[in-house]
Amino acid sequence: MVSSIHAEKKDSKKMKVLESLIGMIQKFPYDDPAYDKLHEDLDRIRGKFKHLCSLLNVQPDFKISAESSGLHFEDDRRTKTKHKGTDVRMLSV
Question: What PANTHER family does the record point to (predicted)?
Answer without folding.
Answer: GEO13458P1 (PTHR28532), ORAL CANCER OVEREXPRESSED 1 (PTHR28532:SF1)
